[in-house]
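During the reporting period, our protein records have gained a C-alpha cell line. One record among many is quoted in full directly below:
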Amino acid sequence: MGPQPSPWFYARKKAWFVTHHGKQVRLTPANGTRDQAQKAFYKLMASEQTPRSEAILVVQVCDQFLEWSRQHHKPESFEWCQDFLESFCNHKATGRLKACEVKPFHLTRWVDSHPNWTGAIR
C-alpha cells in the first residue's frame, strides 16, 4: 500500500492541495489556512463511495484487483488474471457471495472443477 494522502501547501499558488486518485485537488482558496485544508480534506475523504467491508462482494474485490492489474501488469498477465478470476466468480455464483463469507472450500471446489489443470496452474 502506498503513502496515505495528506494536504500540502503549494507556495506558488498560495493554497493547500492534496493528491487524490492521482490528481491534484485544491482544498483552499489563496491564503487558506492549514485548518481549512484539513477540514476540506476530511470532507473529500468522507465523500468517497466505498462500500462497507461486510457488504463487498467477491466480484467487486476481483474487479478492483483487475483495475489495478490492467495498469500495472503486461496485457498478457492481466488477461491471465482476468480469465482465472472470471472463472472463479462464475463458478456456482461465487462472485455473488459477500467477500467475508468466502471459505477455503469455495476455492478448493473451484479448483477441483478443473481436473485438466496440472502443475503450477493447480
